[in-house]
Amino acid sequence: MSHEIRTPLTAISGASHLLSESSLSSEQRKICSIIRQSGEQLLSLINDILDLAIIEAGEVSLEEREFSLNEALKKVISSFKLQVKEKELELKLIYPEDLPSNIRGDEEKITQIVSNFLSNALKFTEKGKVEVRVEELANSRIQISVKDTGAGISEEKLPLIFNKFYQVDGTIRRKYQGTGLGLTIVKGLVDVLGGEIKAQSTLKKGSTFSFNFSYRPV
After folding, report:
1. What is the pLDDT of residues 61-100, one digit of tens each?
2. I want to staple 128 with a disulfide (CB 3.0 to 4.6 A). Which of 68, 84, 149, 155 is the partner?
3. Are 18 and 110 found together in one domain?
4. Same-domain status, 133 and 205
5. pLDDT of res. 163
6. Which pLDDT value is given to residue 56?
7. Residues 18 and 105 in one domain
8. How far apart are CA 196 and CA 98, in angstroms?
9. What pLDDT, on the 0 to 100 scale, is given for residue 91?
Protein backbone atom coordinates (compact mmCIF):
# COMPACT_ATOMS: atom_id res chain seq x y z
CA MET A 1 0.00 0.00 0.00
CA SER A 2 2.77 2.47 0.91
CA HIS A 3 4.43 1.93 -2.48
CA GLU A 4 1.16 2.60 -4.33
CA ILE A 5 0.71 5.90 -2.45
CA ARG A 6 4.28 7.17 -2.53
CA THR A 7 5.14 6.39 -6.16
CA PRO A 8 2.56 8.68 -7.87
CA LEU A 9 3.43 11.56 -5.54
CA THR A 10 7.13 11.12 -6.22
CA ALA A 11 6.38 11.08 -9.95
CA ILE A 12 4.38 14.32 -9.70
CA SER A 13 7.22 16.03 -7.85
CA GLY A 14 9.81 14.77 -10.32
CA ALA A 15 7.76 15.66 -13.39
CA SER A 16 7.06 19.18 -12.15
CA HIS A 17 10.78 19.66 -11.47
CA LEU A 18 11.65 18.60 -15.03
CA LEU A 19 8.90 20.81 -16.42
CA SER A 20 10.23 23.83 -14.51
CA GLU A 21 13.56 23.46 -16.35
CA SER A 22 11.90 23.70 -19.77
CA SER A 23 10.93 26.86 -21.68
CA LEU A 24 8.09 28.35 -19.65
CA SER A 25 6.61 31.77 -19.15
CA SER A 26 6.94 33.45 -15.77
CA GLU A 27 3.34 32.57 -14.87
CA GLN A 28 3.74 28.95 -15.97
CA ARG A 29 6.95 28.63 -13.93
CA LYS A 30 5.13 29.97 -10.87
CA ILE A 31 2.30 27.44 -11.28
CA CYS A 32 4.84 24.65 -11.76
CA SER A 33 6.56 25.67 -8.53
CA ILE A 34 3.25 25.53 -6.66
CA ILE A 35 2.58 22.02 -8.00
CA ARG A 36 6.06 20.84 -6.96
CA GLN A 37 5.90 22.35 -3.46
CA SER A 38 2.39 21.05 -2.83
CA GLY A 39 3.40 17.58 -4.01
CA GLU A 40 6.44 17.57 -1.74
CA GLN A 41 4.37 18.68 1.26
CA LEU A 42 1.77 15.99 0.59
CA LEU A 43 4.49 13.34 0.17
CA SER A 44 6.04 14.41 3.47
CA LEU A 45 2.69 14.11 5.23
CA ILE A 46 1.98 10.69 3.68
CA ASN A 47 5.46 9.46 4.66
CA ASP A 48 4.92 10.57 8.25
CA ILE A 49 1.49 8.93 8.48
CA LEU A 50 2.77 5.65 7.01
CA ASP A 51 5.87 5.64 9.22
CA LEU A 52 3.76 6.23 12.32
CA ALA A 53 1.31 3.49 11.32
CA ILE A 54 4.17 0.99 11.00
CA ILE A 55 5.60 1.99 14.39
CA GLU A 56 2.22 1.81 16.14
CA ALA A 57 1.56 -1.61 14.59
CA GLY A 58 4.76 -2.88 16.19
CA GLU A 59 6.25 -3.76 12.82
CA VAL A 60 9.55 -1.93 13.37
CA SER A 61 12.46 -4.01 14.65
CA LEU A 62 16.11 -3.42 15.41
CA GLU A 63 18.55 -3.94 12.55
CA GLU A 64 21.95 -3.79 14.18
CA ARG A 65 25.23 -3.84 12.29
CA GLU A 66 28.69 -2.36 12.52
CA PHE A 67 28.99 1.24 11.32
CA SER A 68 30.90 4.45 11.95
CA LEU A 69 28.71 6.67 14.13
CA ASN A 70 31.03 9.62 13.56
CA GLU A 71 30.85 9.32 9.77
CA ALA A 72 27.10 8.67 9.82
CA LEU A 73 26.50 11.88 11.77
CA LYS A 74 28.80 13.86 9.47
CA LYS A 75 26.75 12.61 6.51
CA VAL A 76 23.48 13.71 8.15
CA ILE A 77 24.92 17.14 8.92
CA SER A 78 26.23 17.48 5.36
CA SER A 79 22.71 16.98 3.99
CA PHE A 80 21.67 20.25 5.68
CA LYS A 81 24.56 22.36 4.35
CA LEU A 82 22.43 24.31 1.88
CA GLN A 83 19.83 25.20 4.50
CA VAL A 84 22.56 26.27 6.94
CA LYS A 85 24.19 28.45 4.28
CA GLU A 86 20.90 30.09 3.25
CA LYS A 87 20.06 31.02 6.85
CA GLU A 88 23.68 31.96 7.69
CA LEU A 89 23.74 29.69 10.72
CA GLU A 90 26.58 27.80 12.38
CA LEU A 91 26.22 24.01 12.52
CA LYS A 92 28.81 21.85 14.22
CA LEU A 93 29.36 18.31 15.47
CA ILE A 94 31.07 17.61 18.80
CA TYR A 95 32.29 14.01 18.92
CA PRO A 96 34.53 12.95 21.85
CA GLU A 97 37.96 11.65 20.91
CA ASP A 98 37.77 8.79 23.41
CA LEU A 99 34.50 7.43 21.98
CA PRO A 100 35.02 4.70 19.36
CA SER A 101 34.02 5.77 15.87
CA ASN A 102 32.80 2.29 14.97
CA ILE A 103 29.98 0.77 16.99
CA ARG A 104 27.33 -1.89 16.53
CA GLY A 105 23.80 -0.49 16.42
CA ASP A 106 20.86 0.47 14.21
CA GLU A 107 22.37 3.12 11.95
CA GLU A 108 19.18 3.85 10.00
CA LYS A 109 17.04 4.62 13.04
CA ILE A 110 19.75 6.60 14.81
CA THR A 111 20.38 8.80 11.78
CA GLN A 112 16.64 9.24 11.14
CA ILE A 113 16.19 10.54 14.68
CA VAL A 114 19.14 12.94 14.42
CA SER A 115 17.94 14.12 11.00
CA ASN A 116 14.50 14.90 12.43
CA PHE A 117 16.01 16.79 15.37
CA LEU A 118 18.24 18.77 13.01
CA SER A 119 15.40 19.54 10.63
CA ASN A 120 13.35 21.00 13.48
CA ALA A 121 16.29 22.90 14.93
CA LEU A 122 17.16 24.55 11.62
CA LYS A 123 13.53 25.22 10.83
CA PHE A 124 12.93 27.17 14.03
CA THR A 125 16.32 28.90 14.28
CA GLU A 126 16.63 32.20 12.45
CA LYS A 127 20.03 33.24 13.82
CA GLY A 128 22.80 31.75 15.91
CA LYS A 129 23.87 28.12 15.85
CA VAL A 130 22.86 24.49 16.02
CA GLU A 131 25.08 21.98 17.79
CA VAL A 132 25.11 18.18 17.62
CA ARG A 133 26.85 16.69 20.66
CA VAL A 134 27.71 13.03 21.27
CA GLU A 135 28.42 11.78 24.80
CA GLU A 136 29.20 8.38 26.26
CA LEU A 137 27.05 7.42 29.24
CA ALA A 138 27.43 4.60 31.75
CA ASN A 139 26.49 0.99 30.92
CA SER A 140 27.53 1.17 27.24
CA ARG A 141 25.07 3.88 26.28
CA ILE A 142 25.47 6.88 24.01
CA GLN A 143 23.56 10.16 24.15
CA ILE A 144 23.13 12.43 21.13
CA SER A 145 21.84 15.97 21.68
CA VAL A 146 20.81 18.65 19.21
CA LYS A 147 20.88 22.15 20.69
CA ASP A 148 19.68 25.30 18.95
CA THR A 149 19.28 29.03 19.59
CA GLY A 150 15.83 29.14 18.03
CA ALA A 151 12.28 30.07 18.97
CA GLY A 152 12.03 27.76 21.97
CA ILE A 153 8.92 26.27 23.58
CA SER A 154 7.07 27.47 26.66
CA GLU A 155 7.24 25.39 29.84
CA GLU A 156 3.54 24.53 29.82
CA LYS A 157 3.60 23.30 26.21
CA LEU A 158 6.83 21.30 26.42
CA PRO A 159 5.20 18.10 27.83
CA LEU A 160 2.79 18.00 24.87
CA ILE A 161 5.23 18.10 21.97
CA PHE A 162 5.43 14.31 21.51
CA ASN A 163 1.65 14.00 21.10
CA LYS A 164 0.32 13.15 17.65
CA PHE A 165 -0.48 16.15 15.43
CA TYR A 166 0.47 18.58 18.20
CA GLN A 167 1.59 22.03 17.08
CA VAL A 168 2.96 24.64 19.47
CA ASP A 169 0.52 27.17 18.02
CA GLY A 170 -1.30 27.97 14.81
CA THR A 171 1.08 30.76 13.83
CA ILE A 172 4.08 28.45 13.90
CA ARG A 173 2.17 25.79 11.98
CA ARG A 174 1.27 28.24 9.22
CA LYS A 175 4.82 29.60 9.03
CA TYR A 176 6.71 26.30 9.01
CA GLN A 177 4.02 23.93 7.66
CA GLY A 178 4.87 20.99 9.89
CA THR A 179 2.74 17.85 10.05
CA GLY A 180 2.86 17.54 13.83
CA LEU A 181 3.99 13.90 13.53
CA GLY A 182 7.77 14.18 13.40
CA LEU A 183 8.47 14.07 17.13
CA THR A 184 5.86 11.35 17.66
CA ILE A 185 7.67 9.21 15.08
CA VAL A 186 11.02 9.98 16.71
CA LYS A 187 9.72 8.94 20.12
CA GLY A 188 8.51 5.66 18.61
CA LEU A 189 11.93 5.02 17.06
CA VAL A 190 13.69 5.77 20.35
CA ASP A 191 11.38 3.29 22.07
CA VAL A 192 12.39 0.65 19.51
CA LEU A 193 16.04 1.39 20.32
CA GLY A 194 15.25 0.87 24.00
CA GLY A 195 16.31 4.43 24.77
CA GLU A 196 15.00 7.60 26.33
CA ILE A 197 14.11 10.91 24.71
CA LYS A 198 14.27 14.29 26.45
CA ALA A 199 13.47 17.87 25.57
CA GLN A 200 14.55 21.07 27.30
CA SER A 201 13.54 24.49 26.08
CA THR A 202 13.29 28.15 26.98
CA LEU A 203 10.91 30.34 25.02
CA LYS A 204 12.75 32.69 22.63
CA LYS A 205 16.14 31.27 23.67
CA GLY A 206 16.30 27.81 22.17
CA SER A 207 15.82 24.09 22.69
CA THR A 208 17.82 20.93 23.29
CA PHE A 209 16.50 17.56 22.15
CA SER A 210 18.40 14.43 23.16
CA PHE A 211 18.06 10.67 23.10
CA ASN A 212 20.19 7.78 24.28
CA PHE A 213 20.61 4.18 23.22
CA SER A 214 22.71 1.16 24.07
CA TYR A 215 25.55 0.12 21.80
CA ARG A 216 28.18 -2.55 21.46
CA PRO A 217 31.79 -1.57 20.74
CA VAL A 218 33.55 -3.42 17.92
Report:
1. 889 999 999 999 999 999 999 999 999 999 999 999 999 8
2. 149
3. no
4. yes
5. 83
6. 85
7. no
8. 23
9. 97
pLDDT tens sequence across 164-183: 766 655 444 445 555 567 89
Single-letter amino acid code for the residue at 109: K
Domain range for 41: 1-57
194 and 92 assigned to the same domain: yes
Residue 141: name the closest of 105, 116, 189, 188 by CA. 105
Are 127 and 170 part of one and the same domain? yes
List of residues 6+ apart from 183 with CB closer than 8 A? 116, 120, 161, 162, 166
Name the domain count of the chain: 2
Contact 110, 192 (CB under 8 A): no
Encode pLDDT of 113-147 as tens digits. Answer: 999 999 999 999 999 999 999 999 999 999 999 99
Between CA 99 and CA 82 the distance in angstroms is: 29
Q: What's the average model confidence in pLDDT over 201-205?
A: 94
Residue 92 CA to residue 39 CA, distance in Å, equals 32
Q: Kindly report the CATH number assigned to the domain that includes residue 102.
A: 3.30.565.10
